[in-house]
Amino acid sequence: MKIQNAPQSGYPGLSLRQLERSDLPLWYAYLRKPDVVRHTSWNLQSENDLLPMFDGFDSELPSSTRRLAIVNDIAGDLIGTIGFHTVSDVNRTAEIAYDLAPEYWGKGIASAVCSAVTEWSFSAFGFIRVQATVLETNSGSARVLQKCRYRHEGLLRSYRMIRGAPGNFQLYARLSDD
Ligand SMILES: CC(C)(COP(=O)(O)OP(=O)(O)OC[C@H]1O[C@@H](n2cnc3c(N)ncnc32)[C@H](O)[C@@H]1OP(=O)(O)O)[C@@H](O)C(=O)NCCC(=O)NCCS
User: Fold this and answer.
1) What are the structural domains of the chain?
2) Tell me: the pLDDT tens digits for 99-149?
3) What is the mean pLDDT of the chain?
4) Quick check: CB of 113 below 6 Å from ligand 1?
5) For range 82-108, the mean pLDDT
6) Radius of gyration from C-alpha coordinates of the chain
7) Helices and strands per DSSP (H, E), number in the chain
8) Distance (Å, rounded) from C-alpha 146 to C-alpha 52?
């Protein structure tokens, strides 16, 4: 699903807009770095592996994936992405996911943007529950979610493959009325 009216980013100098195919080179430029994907389940061999996700953005189905580009206001360049997958229209739930280029880590950007986008999704999409699954070694992302008032709900054992081996994921969630 395409997002026509993105929210404010919550961070000065950064904006949000629909992620486009033209963003692929900048997105893949950091997703190809081992340090960026180490604590995630990304397993990309080339930029083309990201293309199927764009079919979801082109879809009108209420369960389709959504993703925003986080862009620098001055240069207009993509510096990160944030969005929702595993959307259930029936249950009004979704899973949030995000990533940033490493030059932008440690500045509070993910916390600010995750908070703004989570709040916005409750009204924009009518979600009543947004969850996040975080590889148990990803302490930075777990901290982001805690700062955004997501609650820890448990450990999902062998939940997703991490480049060929099963990984344990922490489950976090925030409800619209939390
Ligand atoms: C995880 C990620 C999004 C964090 O982005 P960020 O903008 O650097 O996060 P913030 O600056 O908002 O930091 C939030 C908190 O996490 C802490 N933190 C950030 N990275 C950390 C790390 N590697 N280890 C421990 N704590 C970390 C910060 O200190 C901060 O806590 P504090 O305010 O109590 O000091 C970013 O590192 C990233 O894109 N990583 C690769 C992709 C990824 O892991 N995505 C999430 C998949 S679930």
Assistant:
1) 14-130 (3.40.630.30)
2) 999 999 999 999 999 999 999 999 999 999 999 999 999 999 999 999 999
3) 97
4) no
5) 98
6) 15
7) 5, 7
8) 31
Collect all residues with Cβ–Cβ distance below 8 Å to 100 and sequence separation of at least 6: 30, 70, 79, 80, 109, 110
- Residue 93 is encoded by which pair of tokens? 């739930």
CA–CA dist 111, 10 (Å, integer): 9
Q: What confidence category does residue 16 fall into, taking pLDDT thresholds of 50, 70 and 90? A: very high
Q: Give residue 145 CA to ligand 1 midpoint distance, Å.
A: 9
Place of tokens 């404010």: 8
- As a whole number, mean pLDDT of residues 152-173 equals 98
Tokens of 162: 């991490």
Amino acid, res. 126? G
59 CA to centre of ligand 1 in angstroms? 31
Atom number of ligand 1 nearest to Cα 111: 12
Decide whether any atom of ligand 1 lies within 6 Å of the 81 Cβ: no
Record the tokens describing residue 84, joined without a space: 């929702």
